[in-house]
Amino acid sequence: MKYVDEFRRQDLAKKLSEDIKREADPERQYNLMEFCGGHTHAIFRYGVQNLMPFNVRFVHGPGCPVCVLPIGRIDNAIQMVQQHDVILCSYGDMLRVPASNRKSLLKVSAEGGDVRMVYSTQDAIKIARENLDRQVVFFAIGFETTTPPSAVAIKQAQAEGLKNFSVFCNHVLTPAAITNILESPEVREIGSVRIDGFFGPSHVSSIIGSQPYEFFAEEFQRPVVIAGFEPLDVMQSTLMLIRQLNEGRYEVENEYIRVVSREGNLKAKGLVAEVMELRRSFEWRGLGMVPYSALKIKKEFAEFDAEKRFDFPAIQANDVKGCECPSILRGVKRPTDCNLFGTVCTPENPMGSCMVSSEGACAAYWSYGRFTQPNSEQESVA
Ligand code: SF4
After folding, report:
1. Residue 350 burial (CB < 10 Å; 0-12/13-18/19+)?
2. How far apart, in whole angstroms, are the C-alpha atoms of residue 263 and residue 266?
3. Which of 6, 196, 232, 272 has the smallest set of CB atoms within 10 Å of its CB?
4. Which of 93, 325, 337, 359 gets mutated to test ligand 1 (max ligand atoms within 8 A of its CB)?
5. Does the beta carbon of 69 sit less than 6 angstroms from any atom of ligand 1?
């Protein structure tokens, strides 16, 4: 296949759907977690859940970078604007995420704060070059995919001698979060969340490769299939997971071979390792403090680290009352379990991060109108 529409072909989807129905054992349940918000959107946008038999269910995971950032870190970004008069450069999604006291970066901007939406780290560097008398901070969020550009920006600022540029580093790591979910009481003890296998993220894996998942596939005996973002990718990966589970295998397989290798992108990984190192612990919305799950800027590059340059405290902030984002991010609840879904909380008036981001589960449920999950054979549509 060469072009993207080939990964959306109806005839192939129908065939895969039939294969999955034939091979899924009706005596067992298959709960498959898609870690990444990109998969959640593919599932809803193309109605993939409706092509599954009743006993194959997708469980939505915490792989939306905007969703997992705790409110306290957004409060910190707001502090930098309001107390240190910085120009804060941020990706668009972050601007609308509710912070404490019903604030958001968008509201701070409306009140006169200098918050600018950027599309890349290079936009932020350009703003720094054009405003040498102001401090410019890039609000860096995201998983392993967006980390290399932040490292590049820091090295570039160093090479250019830019004294007014720094990065507020909030980059988080996928394998640590998956391990945390598998070790959570809901999965291990209470059993309220059952996860039989994982779809490995596609873009993240293009950087880190498939190798980092091998540990927990073996340790926790859960198969992992690295899956592309197109509907046929998700369906083929579902079939691969079902086959592994039927055969009692717990391996890492790679469906997304057109992009992902076992080793990943060595150049990008080397660049990140040069500029950043592991944090001992980092707070995730929904997961709490997760050991070694995020990166910080190395002390050799401290002058480009906003956390070193500006003095701000760690803030423990609560989510909006009634917002179920933390439980949704852990796979414990679904968006429709939230009383605010579609009433108080909509994409136009989001109460939580899961409704803001284009990768959030609540936004996916809302945008594609598939508010219910098939729970019987009759309800699933072939
Ligand atoms: S619907 Fe809104 S309030 Fe409810 S969990 Fe989702 S983002 Fe939070």
Report:
1. buried
2. 7
3. 6
4. 325
5. no
Residue 178 pLDDT greater than 50, yes or no: yes
Tell me: the pLDDT tens digits for 302-331? 999 999 999 888 888 888 889 998 888 888
Element counts in the chain: helices (H) and strands (E)? 18, 13
> What does the DSSP assignment read for 137-196?
EEEEEESTTTHHHHHHHHHHHHHHT-TTEEEEEEEB-HHHHHHHHHHSHIIIII-SS---
322 CA: nearest ligand 1 atom = 3
**Residue-wise pLDDT tens digits, 270-309:** 999 999 999 999 999 888 899 999 999 999 999 999 999 9
Ligand 1 neighbour 182 (Cβ under 6 A): no
pTM for this predicted structure: 0.89
- Could you tell me if the CB of 65 is within 6 A of ligand 1? no
First to last CA, the chain: 24
Residue 171: CA count within 13 A, CB half-sphere: 24
Spell out where the chain has E strands. Answer: 30-36, 56-63, 87-90, 115-117, 136-142, 165-171, 197-200, 224-226, 252-254, 276-278, 281-284, 288-291, 295-297
Ligand 1 atom at shortest distance from the alpha carbon of 327: 5
Say if residue 119 is exposed, middle or buried (CB neighbours under 10 Å; 0-12, 13-18, 19+).
exposed
CATH-assigned architecture of domain 5-63+185-254: 3-Layer(aba) Sandwich (3.40)
Nearest atom, ligand 1, residue 325 CA: 5
Written out in words, the top-level CATH class of the domain with range 67-173+264-310 is alpha beta
- Cβ of 64 below 6 Å from ligand 1: no
* Model pLDDT for residues 49-98, shown as the tens digit of each residue: 999 999 999 998 888 888 899 999 999 999 999 999 999 999 998 999 98
- Which of 321, 323, 349, when mutated, tests ligand 1's pocket best, judged by the most ligand atoms within 8 Å of its CB? 323
How many angstroms is it from 367 CA to the middle of ligand 1? Answer: 14
3-state secondary structure of 133: coil
Cβ 328 under 6 angstroms from ligand 1: yes
The ranges assigned to domains in the chain are 5-63+185-254, 67-173+264-310, 325-367
Copy the structure tokens of residue 103: 């604030």
